[in-house]
Fold Sulfurtransferase.
Amino acid sequence: MDEDIVVSVDWLAAHGDEVRVVDVRDAWEFDGIGHVPGAVNVPFDRFRSEAGDEGMLPGAERWTELMESAGVGTDDRLVAYDDEHGVFAARFLVTAMLYGHRGLHLLDGDYSAWNRTHETTTAAADVTPATYEVREPTSSPLVDFETVRDALGTEAVIVDTREAWEYEEGHLPGAVQLDWRELVDAETRGLKPRAELESLLADRGISPDRRIVLYCNTARRISHTFVVLRYLGYDDVDFYEGSLTEWKERGGPLETVDEGEGE
């Protein structure tokens, strides 16, 4: 993922014929509410698994089937969007990255932002089945339980991207809280200006010169934060896909805001 991973609706309007647009909303939204012209639909629940390889990834075979049936080729440049500020689309992009796809972009501001100023359609997508090949990623940000456990108490910044009340009820020892939605502008539905993002992150000690370890509950919310950090040029970002679900199952230590000590 490069720093140009986040693209505007105007950019997409100008480059739509150069990319494959992927809408990750439910099929009823794609068909009934409308979608970006030329987009194909790959609903969020279809590329996610609780029992796939690498934790919650769908598995290489399932991913290949999804991409081929959606008309996505191995070397297609992809732009993904949803209607939830990009959090589901970001999960799609991280999944694609982990299966070796290159040329990945998040639509800044989601479907609602596109709908405000550009044409939409409810016409069925014209999909030609494609050939898709899963490849090894150039590098993988995935880290496991042991790696995260070993990072506790080090110079690494452990970042909890859940809501404040979730953090208060139980979080990894020493973790800082950053609700992923703090990075989003409620009016534009896209990311806040770069300077504001950098200031917000710096206030939490989340700086580009430090190792960052992200977690939430099930790896959806950290996907958005991961994309934002890569967009801002952060290189050392770990993605704990098992997140708090696995952490609790494995008996990892937790702190609460009130107690401030392991449970």
Notes: The chain has a mean pLDDT of 93. The beta strands are 6-7, 20-23, 40-41, 78-81, 104-107, 157-160, 176-177, 212-215, 237-239. The chain has two domains: 3-117, 145-249.
